[in-house]
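To assess whether the prediction recovers the assembly geometry, we first specified each molecular entity separately, as shown.
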Amino acid sequence: MTKRVSLKDIAQKVGVSTALVSYVLNNKKQDRIGKEVAQRIRNTAKELNYRTNLIARSLKTNKTFTIGLIVADISNPYFSSLARIIEDEADKYNYTVVFGSSDEDALKSGKLIDVFLNRHVDGLIIAPAEDTIGQILSLQQQDIPFVLIDRYFPECKTNHVALDDFKAAYKGVKHLADQGFSRIGMITYNNGLFNLLERKRGWLAALKDSGIAFKKNWLREIGPGPVKQAVEKALQELLSMPQPVDALLFASNTIALHALKHINAMGIKVPQELAVLSFDETEAFDLFYAPLTYIRQPLQEMGQAATRILLESIGRNNKITQVNLEGELVIRQSTSRNPGKR
Amino acid sequence: MTKRVSLKDIAQKVGVSTALVSYVLNNKKQDRIGKEVAQRIRNTAKELNYRTNLIARSLKTNKTFTIGLIVADISNPYFSSLARIIEDEADKYNYTVVFGSSDEDALKSGKLIDVFLNRHVDGLIIAPAEDTIGQILSLQQQDIPFVLIDRYFPECKTNHVALDDFKAAYKGVKHLADQGFSRIGMITYNNGLFNLLERKRGWLAALKDSGIAFKKNWLREIGPGPVKQAVEKALQELLSMPQPVDALLFASNTIALHALKHINAMGIKVPQELAVLSFDETEAFDLFYAPLTYIRQPLQEMGQAATRILLESIGRNNKITQVNLEGELVIRQSTSRNPGKR
DNA sequence: TAAAATTGTTTAATCGATTAAACTTCCGTT
DNA sequence: AACGGAAGTTTAATCGATTAAACAATTTTA
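The predicted structure of the complete assembly is given in tokenized form:
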């Protein structure tokens, strides 16, 4: 590898000090610097194809122009789409994104945060896993800029960008009720993530407001462990009750995916025998024979907002910004009372 | 932000020089260092919660323990899955991954490479876009370690990890022919990427070996621009010919996705009216009413191999490793001659 | 017992940039 | 002519770690 060109090389060639070169290339002290030398420095820099050594700069300035992104799983389309949006937005401001997947595991999350801080990221965008509130509080105490995305802790005054999960769930379930479905169940995860609780709360509220008496066994909460089996079991149970549910809300795309596969395998007719509605968007929903009604999250807005809030926060802005965006209910065949003709 | 603890702080507290502290914490000169001081240094380091400043270390050692990953689009499940695997594998060796999407655009790709080199990544894993061979050669000249993934340039002696695309396509098309389909078309991209050409070649070879006379208009190559419209148009044409195709090979998951949506919308019966077979895997294929036959790429192996080859290469290993893995044909309903009963 | 070798530790240069402060010139003003 | 200030540039410290080389103290060897 041919040695990289440094400030010193330019300084030597032009016959000035490195300080002057630095000032010129960073456009500082503009008014004080001789026009002619400045030009010569600039030319030489171009000629030698000089590139700032960002490592050295970072060491001095304590800034890396890097942001860390921690999601549950980068291979989940929800998060990879977000990652893409954040990447593009960060790039606009010359930031680079490093990423890591927490696997919804507090230990891994902690390790990732550590690694990223060790690498001196300027800030973090985090979709916090369960039981990581301690890590978040610790970031806050250390005054490290960060923004929570997708999930957050209501008891914690931090930047966040997320859905209004209550409203979104409410809207979806209300739609089901309005269509005439009267036994509306839900499959969600058995964990304490606030946004999932909100979705549950929205579901319950919509049932209530629709005059539907909620039955306890309409709700299935799947625990940690393999999702596939748990979802299949839950579906099985929900449909084999004396009075089975006639509609289902899935709390995430992963749950929906497994459920739909099983529904396909069992030959259950959607929406005639069972209407289905899911959170999140994925291309897969379009390919299901009865295209899925789903709650679309405004990913573009979320990703951009999170990035901008983070960058503002890095810029020594101390105010806290909390954004809850509204989900859009995309109504399609899977929740239709009269699906008949295509 | 409370000031970070530095070597100096430890040195001061223990009453030794920073050199000694550095030696101890890096386990260098083990035999020369007093056991008792070493222990005191280690204790103090732990006590003060010392973390190496990686920026400073990088500046001195010229190593960042970072690898750059450039894919076409991180939000494409194919690439995000790869990214996840690479992330996990890199983590095992304490490397961090930074990523960027080239959008199949040579300019963007060049810019990303630049940004990553500027940040002194130790090496790159790249799914090269069309017309980026120049960038690749330039990396090679600069002796920068890199591995191409998914695609490569056969005329270029570089590390790569990819599918044996010819064989994979051949296998798939042969399967179609064996099932009795005799008018087997293909939709691919109209670009010069070697792996796509190989897929085309495999398709042609399988046709030939199956005694099928290839008709020119069975092939649709979609150009740059919006994929959706192009795929729909291609499908339309392929099916409205006097003698329409009875089976189709899609060269990528994106093409397949758009095609399947259109097939759904048009009410075309798969596989009765049209058998379909696609490259790549995505959950969406499972939800199509006739689960898709597809060519599964061994992503896990690919990602791990790419990462390991890169790390070896970073470790001053000059040999070139080229890996072409075999795809697995996952046969399901979409290519069945007797789909009847489920 | 003097020279040589070993052991334990420090000195100081270095990586490449940033930047406050100091230092020359030169000019205009009084 | 002397002084103040502006203009243009350099000096030198600094960020935090790494590491070859030097040094001092002790032990071994001949």
